[in-house]
Design a protein that fits this description.
98 residues, 84% helix
C-alpha cells in the first residue's frame, strides 16, 4: 500500500515538474509573466530556506551530538518544490485572474 502511495505522489510530482517547465516556457501577456515569476520566486524562497535548514541541522548534529551529516535527498526536495510551485501558481492565478 505504501509503495502505491509513493508511486502516486511521485507521478503527481513529476507531472507537476513537467507542467512547471511548460508554463515557464510559454509566452504570454504581462500578467501571466508576473504570475509565473512570483510562483517561481516562492519556489526559490522555499528551496533556499530548506537548504539553509538542512545546513543548520547538519552543523548542530555534527557539533552538538557528534553525528555524521546526512546527505539531502534530491528527489524529495524536487517533489516538495514541484508542489510548492503548483500551489503558488494556482493561488496566484486565482488571485490575479490568470
Amino acid at each position: 500500500m505504501a509503495v502505491y502511495l509513493f508511486l502516486a505522489v511521485l507521478a503527481l510530482s513529476l507531472a507537476g515538474i513537467v507542467w512547471m517547465f511548460v508554463s515557464l516556457g510559454r509566452q504570454g501577456d504581462e500578467r501571466r509573466r508576473m504570475i509565473v515569476t512570483q510562483a517561481a520566486a516562492w519556489s526559490f524562497v522555499v528551496a533556499v530556506g530548506g537548504l539553509l535548514l538542512d545546513v543548520v541541522e547538519g552543523v548542530v548534529r555534527s557539533v552538538a551530538f557528534s553525528q555524521p551529516v546526512e546527505p539531502v535527498n534530491p528527489l524529495v526536495k524536487l517533489m516538495v518544490l514541484s508542489w510548492v510551485y503548483f500551489i503558488s501558481l494556482a493561488v496566484l492565478k486565482r488571485r490575479h485572474g490568470g
